[in-house]
């Protein structure tokens, strides 16, 4: 295994933005596990597969191919050869991703892919259960948090930037619902690893969070 940084936290806590910046500045490969679950959700929606159709989900997972590709400073996600970076952020995917993420065979398959990705490279990986389930022996574990209101505001602004119009109130409700589903599911629920460093980013700038985590990583790499 390479050097592994695990960043866990709830939806909209800034994990994606923060890990991408740190990856660029510290020569780490950024792996957005949430985007992987969103890709599976999109594939299921396109194939009209319901969350209780385990046989069909199993077949889908056998055929699915998820890749991260970098274009200059931008990283995109490809599902079966197609760029789905924007499609996986749509309202329909938002409404279904937590239920898909709670399916045991989906989590098992994604964890396998994530471990495979980190076999020979130094990575910073973000998700819900990276430090507790995927990489319990990660070199650095961070739990990044923020208030539901602040996280909804960030998601709202991110959507607007990408041309996706969803009302703030709807996003806030979705954030709270995802928190409940993610933290109460039976398999690999969202929770802080005992040895993870807790960071509340509610009143911190992106740069402040990036610098704090970079210092933690630098001290571990010495």
CATH topology: Rossmann fold
Unreliable runs? none
- The CATH class is identified as Alpha Beta
Number of strands: 8
The pLDDT mean sits at 92
Report the C-alpha radius of gyration, rounded. Answer: 16 Å
Structural class: alpha/beta
CATH-level-4 superfamily name? P-loop containing nucleotide triphosphate hydrolases
> Given the structure, what is the number of helices?
9
Share of β-strand residues: 15-25%
SSE run: EHEHHEEEHHEHEHHEH
Per CATH, the architecture is 3-Layer(aba) Sandwich
**Strand order across the largest sheet:** 2-6-1-7-8
Word description of this protein:
With 222 residues, this protein is of the alpha/beta class. The chain has one domain: P-loop containing nucleotide triphosphate hydrolases (Rossmann fold, 3-Layer(aba) Sandwich). It is 51% helix and 17% strand. It has helices spanning 15-26, 33-46, 54-63, 91-101, 104-117, 130-134, 148-161, 168-184, 206-221; strands spanning 4-8, 29-32, 66-71, 74-79, 82-83, 123-127, 140-145, 197-200. The protein has a 5-stranded parallel sheet. The chain has a 3-stranded antiparallel sheet with strand order 3-4-5, covered by helices on one side. α2 (33-46) crosses α5. It is globular, with a radius of gyration of 16 Å. The two termini are 18 Å apart. The mean pLDDT is 92.
């Amino acid at each position: 295994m390479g050097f592994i940084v695990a960043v866990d936290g709830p939806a909209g806590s800034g994990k994606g933005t923060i890990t991408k910046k740190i990856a660029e500045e510290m020569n780490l490969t950024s792996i957005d596990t949430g985007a992987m679950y969103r890709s599976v959700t999109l594939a299921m929606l396109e194939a009209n597969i319901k969350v209780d159709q385990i046989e069909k989900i199993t077949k889908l997972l056998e055929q699915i191919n998820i890749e991260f590709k970098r274009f200059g400073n931008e990283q995109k996600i490809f599902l079966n050869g197609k760029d789905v970076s924007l499609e996986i952020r749509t309202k329909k995917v938002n409404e279904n991703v937590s239920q898909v993420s709670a399916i045991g065979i989906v989590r098992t398959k994604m964890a396998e892919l994530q471990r495979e990705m980190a076999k020979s490279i130094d990575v910073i990986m973000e998700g819900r259960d990276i430090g507790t389930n995927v990489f319990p022996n990660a070199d650095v574990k961070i739990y990044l948090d923020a208030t539901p209101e602040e996280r909804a505001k960030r998601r709202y602004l991110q959507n607007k930037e990408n041309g996706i119009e969803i009302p703030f109130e709807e996003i806030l409700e979705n954030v709270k619902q995802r928190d409940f589903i993610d933290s109460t599911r039976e398999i690999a629920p969202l929770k802080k690893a005992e040895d993870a460093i807790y960071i509340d980013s509610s009143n911190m700038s992106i740069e402040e969070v990036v610098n704090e985590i970079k210092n933690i990583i630098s001290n571990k790499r010495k």
